[in-house]
Specification:
The protein has about 50 residues and is mainly α. The chain has one domain. Helices cover about 80% and strands about 0% of the residues. The protein contains 2 helices and no strands. It has helices spanning about 1-10, 15-45. The model has no long low-confidence stretch (mean pLDDT about 75). Keywords: Membrane, Transmembrane, Transmembrane helix.
Amino acid sequence: MLVAGLLFFCVGCMFSLEALNWMFAEGLLGWFIQVALLKMILLSFGSYPC
């Protein structure tokens, strides 16, 4: 998967620097939302260590 991504990047057919930057920011935001959701779920069950 990584090699395929690098190959597409080297060819330069689909991925511009702005698109990769946007995908990274979107993934990071999604990860933070998932962590916050998991913390809220664990807190609602009362099993999250303080």
